[in-house]
Amino acid sequence: MTGILRIALPVNLRRLFDYLPPRSLQSGTLTPGIRVRVPFGSRELVGILISLETESEVPENKLRPAHALLDESPILPPSLIKLTLWAADYYHSPAGDTFSQALPALLRQGYDLAREVHQFWQPAANLDTQAEQALLRARAPRQQEAWSLIKQHGDGISIEALKSMGFERPLLKNLENRGLIEPIEKAPEFQLFYEHEPLLKSSPYVLNEEQARALESITCEGEQFSATLLHGVTGSGKTEVYLQAIAHTLAKKQQALVLVPEIGLTPQTLARFRDRFNVPVVVLHSGLTDRERLNGWLSARRGEAGIVIATRSGIFTPLLHPGIIIVDEEHDLSYKQQDGVRYSSRDLALYRGRLESIPVVLGTATPSLETLHNSQTHRFRYLQLRQRAGNARPPVLELIDTRNQQMTGGLAPATLSAVKETLKQGQQVLVFLNRRGYAPTLTCDNCGYLIDCPNCDAHLTLHKTPLHLHCHHCDYHQGIPDQCPNCQSRELSPVGQGTERTEEILEQLFAPRENKRKGRVDVLRIDRDSMRKKHSFQETINKIHQGNPAILVGTQMLAKGHHFPAVTLVVIVNADTGFFSADFRGAEKTGQLILQVAGRAGRAEKPGQVLIQTGNPDNPQLQSLIHHGYDAFSQDILNQRRSIGLPPFSHIALITSEATNPQPVEEFLNNTAIVARELIEAENLGGPEGVMVMGPMPAPMERRQGRMRWQLHLQAPNRKPLHNLLYRLLPVMEQDPFTRKLRWSIDIDPQDMS
Ligand code: ADP
Ligand code: ZN
Ligand code: ZN
């Protein structure tokens, strides 16, 4: 017997599956990393061969043979197989699910990579000279042309090349039938990225001292793992350091992988890479078709692409010669997947760097507390860029106390006069508000009733264009009721501010419609609703870049990756909600967002002003952020976390269960908590360094999308006992009969606990 195939399959069970080799093992060798088609129940699935074993827990007569091997050689390099298996283990997820994350959809579906050969046409081997004479006598000029072309290229012309000259398949078939030409298949020809000369298209800047030190530290060690936090305010020249580190990598014939947040990948960012380098740059993000994604993936794997720029799942992109991984805006929450395998691609980047012995750089203006802690405990190198590159000066932050003020559409008088002044000077204003729609609630003036979503514990948001009520958690829509559902009063009013309402008010104040004269101030709203149309985002950005006086009103879509050189005033409409959220990360994330938005201002020679409106100007965290900057702000929060033992000073696993019927949701987690406590006792996993079980308890948003949600928190100062508990606990949970009545999930290092 050739051995037993141990295979990862995309099914929701935390184990691998054993099969016998296919009955007719004609071609292909059994190498880990190839795809295998196997029977599973009455279905057929595509899995990945993980290892060859000599024994199985399944009796041999029960083992089924695989149907077919799909690849002749592994589709993933060993380092990525290790990374994927490590992710399955660390995130306690089925290995098959993790491989599904790692592979482009077409490969998961069994797409035949051998089809990646291209068709060429060449003169037939035993050419019929009489047929040639006949063709030359015939009145078939296009066929004669094609024939003479193919005859000149004895080693064949690709079908694409022929097509581009207007020779289509029927014409070629005709020549084939005449016995003149024949098709051949050849692997596509491609050029390795380092064969493009010269590597640089444009020359780099002369680095300032801090940048030079950073570059030296990142590149000094060559083929070795290192983790570096590159901490520098927006505009301090981090990207320039990345570009030069990449140039260094490419020169060693190694590739670079750059991770960016989901909405941070702007055409400007991409243009900076394409303008600097002659090597192909591949971009992988969620907006691609399956075919585009596969092409990008293949180009990285074959070494055609020198640079891969990718969002979250791009961490699984195989590289022929890996050389460096850069994670830009490492604090960004979009690096954490929020469903299925809940991995953090920033954290996987660090593990991958270790596996491939290459440097990993985490760049940000506002490091996450986890990353700060890692650099303070010397697991990461810490490099800081303190100055803005070039001449730009940092923006000035100022609090605007909104208490006892005559507010106009959520804006204080002092804010409005600053807006007016900025427009008068011909500059632009950015108004940031993290709420789309017109108003967050519609309320009854008579009885105070708020209109809620029927499926969620949430109020419905009022939208004006088109007019409707909308739930941002489950997408429920309804029209506007004529009267209060509670007291039948007809007096219903919007309460609070959304981007639509702020846009409306700013338009009335600064760009009244009756003012038709040329040079009217533009009020441009940028949020998910206004940008729904395919090209509207780019059109708006282009308009902003013309630099005429304008007010930009937007959500965090505006906060990332963009440079708005003409913006000199930034207004943060409400700094308070995030600071008082139930989530222990609320303050950290709000501080990061404020600085991120603030960083849009004054990037060129014009210094920026940032006005932060608050009803709690004495909030010590806000004070610390304004007066002492991010370092002091984050250190305060870090100290608090240490004193109460929250991450990064402890580790959390969050188990969530949900179903329309509340009863099993709670009972399932009650059972789980009992088993967990028993295991902790029996395995000695408790004590001061051990695991604490908290809950079960309702999730902060108990009802969402019509389902009741409960949570169980497992928390420990050390990872080891926590993971040891989970190895034992999860198989018990999988067997629980309640699992047929509900959905459950596990989230390691959860970022969003709602
Ligand atoms: P970050 O990525 O930290 O936001 P960038 O690398 O985008 O910063 O730099 C901000 C601006 O300064 C860019 O326009 C960049 O071209 C310019 N810049 C960066 N480094 C230098 C330098 N050493 N000399 C001159 N200009 C620089
Ligand atoms: Zn009412
Ligand atoms: Zn809802």
Write out key terms for the chains shown:
754 residues, alpha/beta, GIY-YIG endonuclease, Rossmann fold, 6-stranded parallel beta sheet, 32% helix, 22% strand, globular, binds adenosine-5'-diphosphate, binds zinc ion
Protein model, in words:
The chain has 6 domains: 4-114, 3-Layer(aba) Sandwich (GIY-YIG endonuclease); 118-187; 204-385, Rossmann fold; 396-436 and 499-644, P-loop containing nucleotide triphosphate hydrolases (Rossmann fold, 3-Layer(aba) Sandwich), CATH 3.40.50; 440-495, no CATH class; 651-748, Alpha-Beta Plaits (2-Layer Sandwich). Helix 1 crosses helix 12 (345-356), helix 8 packs parallel to helix 9 and helix 18 (586-598) crosses helix 19 (620-644). Helix 11 links the parallel strand 11 (281-284) and strand 12. It is 32% helix and 22% strand. The longest helix is centred in the last third of the chain and has 25 residues, at 620-644. It has a 7-stranded parallel beta sheet, sandwiched between helices. Strands 16-26-25-17-24-23 form a 6-stranded parallel beta sheet, sandwiched between helices. A 5-stranded antiparallel beta sheet has the order 2-1-4-3-5. With 754 residues, it is α/β, with parallel strands linked by helices. Bound molecules: adenosine-5'-diphosphate and zinc ion (2 copies). One zinc ion binds at residues 453, 455-456, 458, 471, 473-474, 476.
